[in-house]
């Protein structure tokens, strides 16, 4: 690189901001999207709340559903705006521009993740606030620092997984769309979005803990509804925090390696610019 | 003034058949048949299992709860709503935005209304397999008591066909709305399907909803469709609200609402089509 070029880290952070910017500013451009993004999960949450009411479940289960409903926003964002993103970029012709840009691909992924995270948090908070108000959920926070820690680590691990997925999805054509679609209901089931995950059996729940939201949701439920979760928890919160920290490191590292490998493979197989397949 | 000369019955049938074949190719040829089968089955079964575990973790008596069969059957047949209703309206987005083919369809000698209905056929086939697998799974793994000898097959078949037709017409209606929508077309099908899931009592008896929402639910054809399917399969419906209706009354409501949807969807689609042409929306690329 010539002497006049900005330092590598400057380019890295500029790229992160540049890729995050459209996702953050996009919130302002079409405000009615926010309405739909809040309304759609809320409809699902409402339906599940009425199921629990129909079978006379304790009121804490309404809280479980509202929390799970809010967290669906993050999982859907990871699937459709992280994992499938390179597929969409390929379809719209942006991917080749990303590849010839003099910057780090990891910075692009990080920007995508941070931008998506901010935009999705607005939606998740809205679902949580409305759900809590409408259904009269009254959580009792047992430990604020732990709750914040669990939430942050869940998102770091989750978006690390999203970055890993987006590398893997580089090779896909239409399969990307179908795979993202396939990873909705089964993950809602395995991660216990609408019921405590221990109901699946400890072995299945532990296996499902490779999806960060499984541990994150279980820990958050324990911290918000400690009495009800005493019998329904999968692991103590401390163990789940450690699990989330390990997943964060593993996914971010794997995403870095996978991105290079998949890009090389996609170049060799000529799939980087293949559209409409 | 009509956008195109009226299609003959022969043209409509040919458009329908070709679209059904095309829809099947688009749905199924992205992967190997085995993976396609797995894909078609895993999603609905996982959706059904979410309900199962919600019951297991809460309901006294677990799956013996008297509501469980009603809810399971309602949820299984709701798979059609996602498939057929959203499948038909999604064809407009797919052809216009993704493949860029909608303008060519309008330049070809075909009946676009029949074409859209045909695009829903592949989704209906996939949904039928998923519904059958879900019900079978319920019967074999969860002890759902559906005895073939006690099923009212004639009632089931008539109600099923009427409901499916109604969904397809509703899909075309949404397709019309999609045609003149730029920034919200991805949300339309999902929003309608989500609202119907809540309001038609697919996963709980309508009786548990607040009074205002009960009234909305009672105005929806889908509510009567699910009630009819439950009665045909299980011998009784869900909740007390619709218990006063006889089977014949249910079929009459379904037949009337399907006819109304056919007329309404034709009128809405034709109107949307004229607007789309006037505003140059038939080849719109929003890049969203």
Give keywords:
heterodimer; A: 277 residues; mainly alpha; 0% strand; B: 288 residues; 10 helices; globular
Account of the 3D structure:
The complex is a heterodimer of chains A (277) and B (288). Chain A is mainly alpha-helical and 277 residues long. Chain A has one domain. Helix content of chain A is 76%, strand content 0%. Chain A has helices spanning 8-29, 31-54, 60-83, 85-92, 95-100, 105-135, 144-168, 174-182, 185-190, 202-208, 212-224, 226-229, 237-268. Chain A is globular. Chain B is an all-alpha fold. Chain B has one domain (9-278). Helices cover 73% and strands 0% of the residues of chain B. Chain B is built from ten helices and no strands. Chain B starts with 8 loop residues before the first helix and ends in a 10-residue tail after the last helix. The mean pLDDT of chain B is 88. The A-B interface holds A 30, 32-33, 36, 39-40, 43-44, 46-48, 50-55, 57-58, 61, 91-92, 173-175, 178, 181-182, 184-186, 188-189, 192-196, 199-200, 232, 276 and B 30-31, 39, 42-44, 46-47, 49-51, 53-59, 65, 67, 71, 98-99, 183-184, 187, 190-191, 194-195, 197-198, 202-205, 208-209, 287.
């Amino acid at each position: 690189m010539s002497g006049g070029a900005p330092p590598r880290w400057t380019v890295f952070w500029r790229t992160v901001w540049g890729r995050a910017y459209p996702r953050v500013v996009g919130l302002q451009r079409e405000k009615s999207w926010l309405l739909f993004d809040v309304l759609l999960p809320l409809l699902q949450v409402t339906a599940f709340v009425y199921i629990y009411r129909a079978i006379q479940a304790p009121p804490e289960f309404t809280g479980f559903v509202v929390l799970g409903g809010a967290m669906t926003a993050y999982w859907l964002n990871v699937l459709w705006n992280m994992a499938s993103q390179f597929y969409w970029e390929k379809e719209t012709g942006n991917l080749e521009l990303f590849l010839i840009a003099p910057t780090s691909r990891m910075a692009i992924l990080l920007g995508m993740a941070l931008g998506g995270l901010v935009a999705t948090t607005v939606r998740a908070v809205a679902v949580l606030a409305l759900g809590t108000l409408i259904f009269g959920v009254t959580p009792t926070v047992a430990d604020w620092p732990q709750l914040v820690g669990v939430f942050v680590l869940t998102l770091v691990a989750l978006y690390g997984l999203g970055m890993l997925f987006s590398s893997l999805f580089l090779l896909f054509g239409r399969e990307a769309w179908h795979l993202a679609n396939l990873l909705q209901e089964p993950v809602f089931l395995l991660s216990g979005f609408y019921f405590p995950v221990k109901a699946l059996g400890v072995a299945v729940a532990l296996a499902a803990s490779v999806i960060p939201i499984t541990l994150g949701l279980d820990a958050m439920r324990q911290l918000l509804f400690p009495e009800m979760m005493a019998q329904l928890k999968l692991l103590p919160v401390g163990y789940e925090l450690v699990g989330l920290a390990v997943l964060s490191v593993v996914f971010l590292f794997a995403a870095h390696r996978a991105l290079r490998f998949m890009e090389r493979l996609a170049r060799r197989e000529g799939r980087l610019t293949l559209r409409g397949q | 003034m009509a956008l195109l000369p009226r299609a003959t019955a022969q043209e409509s049938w040919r458009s329908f058949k070709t679209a059904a074949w095309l829809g099947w190719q688009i749905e199924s040829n992205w992967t190997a048949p085995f993976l396609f089968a797995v894909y078609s089955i895993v999603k609905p079964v996982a959706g059904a299992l979410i309900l199962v575990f919600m019951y297991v973790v809460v309901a006294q008596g677990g799956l013996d709860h008297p509501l469980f069969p009603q809810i399971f059957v309602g949820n299984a047949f709701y798979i059609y709503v996602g498939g057929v209703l959203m499948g038909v309206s999604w064809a407009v987005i797919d052809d216009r935005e993704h493949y860029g083919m909608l303008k060519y369809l309008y330049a070809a000698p075909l009946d676009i209304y029949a074409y859209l209905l045909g695009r829903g056929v592949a989704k209906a086939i996939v949904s039928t397999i998923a519904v059958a697998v879900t019900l079978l799974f319920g019967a074999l793994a969860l002890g759902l008591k559906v005895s073939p000898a006690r099923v009212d097959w004639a009632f089931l078949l008539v109600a099923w066909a009427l409901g499916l037709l109604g969904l397809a017409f509703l899909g075309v209606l949404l397709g019309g709305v999609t045609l003149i929508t730029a920034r919200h077309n991805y949300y339309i099908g999902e929003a309608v399907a989500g609202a119907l899931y809540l309001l038609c009592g697919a996963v709980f008896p309508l009786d548990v909803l607040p009074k205002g929402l009960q009234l909305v639910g009672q105005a929806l054809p889908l509510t009567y469709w699910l009630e009819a399917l439950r009665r045909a399969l299980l011998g009784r419906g869900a909740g007390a609200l619709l218990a006063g209706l006889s089977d014949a009354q249910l079929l009459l409501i379904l037949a009337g609402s399907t006819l109304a949807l056919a007329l309404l969807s034709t009128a809405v689609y034709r109107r949307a089509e004229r607007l789309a042409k006037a505003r140059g929306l038939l080849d719109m690329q929003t890049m969203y």
